[in-house]
Amino acid sequence: MRVVMFGYQTWGHRTLKALLESEHDVVTVVTHPKSEHAYEKIWSDSVADLAAEHGVPVVIRNRPDDDELFDLLKQADPDIIVANNWRTWIPPRVYSLPRHGTLNIHDSLLPKYAGFSPLIWALVNGEQEVGVTAHMMDEVLDAGDIVDQRAVPVEPTDTATDLFHKTVDLIAPVTLGALARIAAGETEFTPQDRSQASFFHKRSEEDIRIDWDWPADALERLVRAQSAPYPSAFTFHKGKRLEVLSAVVSEGRYGGTPGRIFYREGDGVVIVAGADARTGRNHGLAITRVRTEDGRELPASAYFTSLGGYLTSRP
């Protein structure tokens, strides 16, 4: 099939690579300009560079809604558009232009975790598996019929980076598997159960701020979700920002007020956690490694030279 590819960052790069190595003919690539957004600089393999290396025409756009691009797409005469990690709305006249419509590749197990940063949100929320979905694009974001979907388990110590590497390897088989069904003439695919749908926004500074009212297991997952190269989860100690680089759920249960710097346990320093910590039924978060405001990384046991006082969400 003649394919136009819409994509960005490493997700788009992997998709384009799979298409270029397949029997399909990539006739045009549309991608975004480089971004300075913190999350968009992390997995930033260039779709434009890969396309240029293979002599495929490249169009750079923030939004694909102008007449010039639409005319270029009509001239390309695609059988299908394949999109992955396209960051802005694709209008109906574009996604419905090809003979077979538009196939979108999304790194979650739709209908859950539509939208942005699905792997991080899924890890924070304690999901047992994550994956990649290929679905037909329609007027509702990430809501079209599912053509192919594959999952991988979330292990107890997985970070968001681990899940990225697990799921990015699913892009090629999911994309090519879905295209094989479409090329074979299939048109009936699996509708999404919209009662199970959830939609998440882009992550920002506010989303990595530690709230000590959260239970310790959720905070431990937040720390893993924000592990390098993502921006680290942070709190404040004596008015200064303190990044939490690693932590575990405490073995013991600790009562009191959320945020209290309370007890040394193993290699960590336990912080009281959970909105109902006053009951004494909660585990705490045992912080094991931190980064200070001036960039020093050190064990929590070395940083917290004395106990007592509080970690807070604001200076």
List keywords for this structure.
single chain; alpha/beta; 7-stranded mixed β-sheet; elongated
Approximate shape? elongated
Order of helices and strands: EHEHEHEHEEHEEHHEHEEEEEEHE
Strand order of the largest sheet: 3-2-1-4-5-7-8
Q: By helix and strand content, what is the structural category?
A: alpha/beta
Q: How many H/I helices? A: 9
Low-confidence stretches: none
What's the main sheet like?
7 strands, mixed
Count the beta strands: 16
Strand proportion: 25-35%
Task: Report the mean per-residue pLDDT as an integer.
Answer: 97
* Cα distance spanning the termini: 57 Å
Radius of gyration: 23 Å
Described by its quaternary structure, the protein is: single chain
Percentage of helical residues? Answer: 10-25%
Record the SSE blueprint.
Layout: E1 2-7, H1 9-20, E2 25-31, H2 47-53, E3 58-60, H3 67-76, E4 80-84, H4 92-95, E5 102-106, E6 114-115, H5 118-124, E7 129-136, E8 146-153, H6 160-168, H7 171-183, E9 199-200, H8 216-225, E10 234-237, E11 240-253, E12 261-265, E13 268-271, E14 283-291, E15 297-299, H9 300-303, E16 311-312
Parallel strand pairs: 1-2, 1-4, 2-3, 4-5, 6-9
Antiparallel strand pairs: 5-7, 7-8, 10-11, 10-16, 11-14, 12-13, 13-14, 14-15
Helix pairs in contact: 1-7, 5-8
